[in-house]
Amino acid sequence: MTGPSKPEIPRGSIAPRIQELLDLVVVAIPPLGVPYAIGGGLAVCALGYMRHTKDVDLFVRPAEAPQVVAALRRVGLVVVPVMEPLHYIATLPGHRDDPEVRIAVLMPYDEPEATAIEQPCPARLVGHDLDIFQPLLLAAAKFYANREEDDLDLAQLFGLGLVDPARVRAIIASFDPGSVQAFDAKVREILAPRHPRPRPPRRPPPPVETGRGRRRKR
Predict the structure, then answer these.
(1) Looking at the structure, do residues 98 and 129 belong to the same domain, yes or no?
(2) Is residue 171 a contact partner of residue 112, using CB atoms and an 8 Å limit?
(3) Helices (H), 56-96
(4) 160: DSSP letter
(5) Would strands 121-125 and 36-39 be described as parallel, antiparallel, or unpaired?
(6) Cα 142 from Cα 27, distance rounded (Å)
(7) What are the per-10-residue average pLDDT scores of the chain (218 residues)?
(8) Which residues span the domain enclosing 34?
């Protein structure tokens, strides 16, 4: 009896530039031996909902940030701070201003990202063995992001049966019970059936006047 299959993104199924960035990530990060996890759109794709993604969200512990930044620079990426020491952007040379060709290097101090780094999910991304967010933690992170695009991801993760909302709720309750009510409301909102708006009744067209019964002008 085989266990569940490893989350996977087949090679050639994402944008070539994003694939190129992952090729560099696998050279730079796993050899360091530090915990990390890839989240965001790539993790969503790996779980089975393929969609366009514009970057690589790489989460590492704050203590390892200097090592990670140095390793990314060694493989030829341009790394600049956005909010040092919590957020950096790494880009291919010549693509610094391109928002769709970049690695967001993020150092969280809170849940669920902190646990996602410590307890990642092994995945196969474009031919490479890399760690991603566990599905339940990914869904929790999407809930806290509270953006329209993240709500769409949650709707797909829940609606396609890729993640169980009840188990995500239990995780949120374990570290942030005050947010459970908001999570319940979010689930109801994104899973509510979408009914098309009824069209207003069409007015009958005005009668067409004919020549009958009209007086002739003299």
Answers:
(1) yes
(2) yes
(3) 65-74
(4) T
(5) unpaired
(6) 28
(7) 72 90 96 97 95 93 96 96 92 74 92 97 96 98 94 95 97 97 95 64 60 47
(8) 1-133
